[in-house]
Design a protein that fits this description.
This protein is an alpha/beta fold and 376 residues long. The chain has two domains: 6-144, 2-Layer Sandwich (Nonspecific Lipid-transfer Protein, Chain A); 153-359, 3-Layer(aba) Sandwich (Rossmann fold), CATH 3.40.50. It has 13 helices and 14 strands. It has helices at residues 6-12, 17-27, 29-43, 83-86, 97-105, 136-144, 153-160, 171-178, 204-212, 244-254, 268-278, 314-325, 336-341, and strands spanning 54-62, 65-74, 77-81, 91-96, 117-120, 125-127, 130-133, 186-191, 216-222, 234-238, 259-262, 287-290, 345-351, 354-359. The strands form three sheets. A seven-stranded mixed β-sheet has the order 10-9-8-11-12-14-13, with helices on both faces. The radius of gyration is 24 Å and the shape is elongated. The termini are far apart. 41% of the residues are buried. The structure holds S-adenosylmethionine (SAM). The site of S-adenosylmethionine has 24 residues, from strand 8, helix 9 and strand 9. S-adenosylmethionine (SAM) binds at residues 162-164, 190-196, 202, 204-205, 221-224, 240-242, 263-265, 270.
């Protein structure tokens, strides 16, 4: 479930210490630090350390105040507890609360660890000739999340159980289009959570986006119940991608998206209905991506292998958007889709089974009337 105001914390994370501290106080320092630590647990991939056990205390300073939380790590997962329940700490990590906010949710270049200190309380050295405490493996994993690096999207897709790499090979293409946006506070909306009728299954790609876009709020819609799928910064809604009233209700809660990924029914009519409704509501500079375009050629999905330019198929519709990019060059006033989308589509990219549409202001104008190419 997305905390309603976590976006404020993410936005503040790009600001000064004073700005961050003001938001921390308004947010509630206890709740804020807890949310930051939940994020670090998510980013730590603790399932890779199934035998590690440790209690890590975080002591975060905000003016005169110190906010403490403990993370208990065992059996490949981490849980946050109230002090007494979590057990005696093996190690304490101290830092300024504002620095932790910036390190977790700030832009990449702004992260520091200037105020951080690690104090080991137990000594269980790695080996007779290596005095580093064994719990260092856990602490390193937890702190890794304060400097998210260049995670490989294919590896994340496999880890979280999305078919975006392996069955399809979209992740290098996503990397190409998403990398410039990665450091910004964003809202990402995916149509199709996954897992179909199983309410506990799916959500692999939502976790993928949560990890990759470390400053984003992630929303997913699905025709099936998905309330059991989620996590901090992730929220799901139940309804059809082809229902404009439902989509409006979702956007009412999430705000306008920066990125929409259509991985829903893949039926041509649904793909086109969602695109028609959501593209105008995308933020300028945003991206709209349509996966699994192979269904555009398959009658079962409303597609056709004969009428390749039919605007009733997903590919036929996207091809019209390619013309919309050049809407100002037509010798007759554009109409229909070209007229509707033209002023707002600045790029259309076609890849194997994936379409990417860039939103922006497309009003450069055509060549001036005196240009030789225009006469005759
Ligand atoms: C391929 S799965 C999504 C996989 C997920 N995006 C991932 O990469 O992990 C497609 C999902 O779309 C959902 N779906 C089917 N028709 C839909 C519709 N009309 N509106 C919204 N979701 C729909 C299905 O229930 C299914 O869970």
């Amino acid at each position: 479930m997305i905390e309603d105001d976590v976006g404020e914390l993410i936005a503040a994370a790009g600001g000064t210490d004073e700005t961050i501290e003001g938001v921390l106080r308004a947010f509630g320092p206890e709740r804020a630090v807890r949310l930051l630590l939940e994020e670090l647990v998510h980013r730590a991939d603790l399932e890779d350390l199934p035998h590690a056990r440790a209690v890590v205390r975080f002591a975060c300073h905000l003016g005169e105040r110190t906010v403490e939380h403990r993370i208990r790590v065992e059996k490949g997962s981490g849980s946050l507890g109230a002090d007494a329940g979590a057990g005696e700490p093996d190690v304490t990590v101290r830092c300024a609360a504002a620095e932790l906010v910036r390190a977790v949710f700030g832009p990449t270049g702004a992260r520091t660890s200037a105020t951080r200190r690690v104090e080991w309380h137990t000594t269980d050295p790695i080996g007779p000739h290596n005095e580093v405490p064994r719990t260092a493996f856990v602490v390193q994993r937890l702190l890794r999340g304060t400097a998210p690096g260049r995670e490989d999207l294919a590896e994340l897709a496999l880890r979280f159980g999305s078919d975006k790499w392996g069955l399809h090979f979209y992740t290098p293409l996503y990397e190409r289009h998403f990398a410039p946006l990665r450091d910004r506070p964003l809202t990402v909306l995916e149509l199709g959570v996954g897992g179909f009728d199983d309410p506990r299954a799916g959500g692999g790609s939502l976790q993928l986006w949560r990890r990759y876009f470390h400053r984003a709020l992630i929303a997913g819609i699905d025709i099936a119940e998905k309330t059991a799928v989620g996590g901090a910064r992730v929220r799901t809604f139940r309804g059809s991608q082809a229902d404009p009233d439902f989509l409006d209700a979702v956007l009412e809660e999430t705000g306008p998206p920066d990125i929409v990924i259509d991985d829903g029914s893949h039926r041509c009519a649904d793909v086109i209905a969602s695109l028609r409704h959501l593209f105008p509501r995308l933020r300028p500079g945003g991206l709209y991506l349509v996966e699994d375009l192979q269904t555009s050629y398959w009658p079962r999905y409303g597609g056709s292998s004969e009428s390749l330019s039919s605007p009733a198929t997903s590919m036929g519709f996207l091809k019209e958007l390619a013309d919309a990019v050049n809407h100002e060059e037509l010798n007759v006033p554009p109409s229909g889709t070209v007229a509707d989308f033209g002023p707002h589509v600045v790029g259309v990219h076609f890849y194997h089974n994936l379409g990417v549409i860039e939103k922006g202001v497309n009003q450069e104008g055509t060549l001036p009337p005196w240009h030789p190419a225009r006469s005759g």
